[in-house]
């Protein structure tokens, strides 16, 4: 781990004191030429150590992700899936010969994946999603058939796999905002929009959900913290936080259930619109 510039400079000064010929360099002024030289050298060493740290982290990450059979390996293999492409004989890689870079990239339809181990039985849960416009969506039936076959070809013998390719979990929120009437009107609109943001509360919620990693944990208190620092907000209270997920057997969403403190979406991601496109977020503004 990289030392601080001060730590490095102090080690240089300590080494200097060991050499009799350098004892004449005894000024205590930080602006003295010799002290400035030690600072410059310390700064260079500091940046070199940062590079060493970054290199070590990169190597460790590469090793972890290439370890065959690990959760990260399965995740990377899911993201590497190419729809419509054959696997090379006796290999886990696709045959990309005679295809352009654009065609290869377009065939990688799975944009998001997370792999976990089931807690109640010995199997892997592989959650996946693609992108349709600016929204996360499941892949279609034909694509799922090909992806399932692909996993059967590359997975390790004896490993049971469950693919989660669901519509997003529904997220219902009730929020009470104490607004600054100098900044927000009664409908939560910015009186003087900053950067063109007319509804800052809605923008904060959208940004928080977008920042969640795929299969990331939604923490109610963290969302509250983000709302509190939104322009025009004096205080905030989340009065309702519920989620519902798709029942894989019936294909119907289950009833909404309260979110105590946090929740990880069953599908890997959330939507704040119901199946009819109705907004599931209710915001009440008070002064």
Automatic annotation (TrEMBL):
UniProt entry keywords in alphabetical sequence: Transferase
Top-level taxonomic group: Bacteria
GO molecular function: transferase activity
UniProt protein name: Nucleotidyltransferase
Organism, scientific name: Apibacter muscae
